[in-house]
Amino acid sequence: SDADLRAYLGPGGRLLRPQDLRLHVYHGGVEPGLRKVVWRYLLNVFPAGLSGQERLAHLRRKAGEYAALKALLAARAAPGELALVGAAVRKDVVRTDRGHPYFGGPEEGHPHLAALQALLTTFALGHPRLSYCQGMSDVAAPLLAVLDDEAQAFLCFC
C-alpha cells in the first residue's frame, strides 16, 4: 500500500531499505495503483540513494538517452537487418493481448502498439547477440501498459 511504501522512504523520498521493500512486495504484492512507482525500484531503474527530485531528473535524462539511442540504432542499422528485426518483433506485437484496454482497438496507427514495436526493436538492435526472442513482448507489454511511457518501459525491460 501507499503507507507501506512510505515506510521504506526517508528524507527527500530516498529509498532506505531496498531489500526489505523487495521482500515486502514478494510476500504481499503491490496495489495496482502503485505498480508504476514500485516496479521502477524493483527493476533497478534508479541508482541507490536518489531523492524524489533526483529520480525525476534521472528519468528525464534517461528518456533523452533512450530517444537518442533509438534514433541512432535505427539510422545505423542495415536496411535488411532493420526489416528482419522489425518483422520478428511485429509478429508478436500484433498478438499482444488486444482484449486489454491499453492495447485494444484497430491495429493500424495504434500508438501503444507502435511504442511496443519501437521499444522491442530498439532493444533488439542494441543487443545484436540476443536480438529479439519470441515472448519478449509478453514481458514488455505489461511494463508499457502500467508505466504508459515508452522510455521508462524500455529502462525496466532492460
UniProtKB/TrEMBL annotation:
GO terms for biological process: regulation of autophagosome maturation. Keywords: GTPase activation. Residues 29-158 form the Rab-GAP TBC domain. One of its GO terms (molecular function) is GTPase activator activity. Gene3D superfamilies: putative rabgap domain of human tbc1 domain family member 14 like domains. The keyword Transcription regulation does not apply. One of its GO terms (cellular component) is autophagosome. Pfam families: RabGAP-TBC. InterPro entries: Rab-GAP-TBC_dom, Rab-GAP_TBC_sf. The keyword Endoplasmic reticulum does not apply. PROSITE patterns: TBC_RABGAP. This is TBC25 protein. The gene is Tbc1d25.
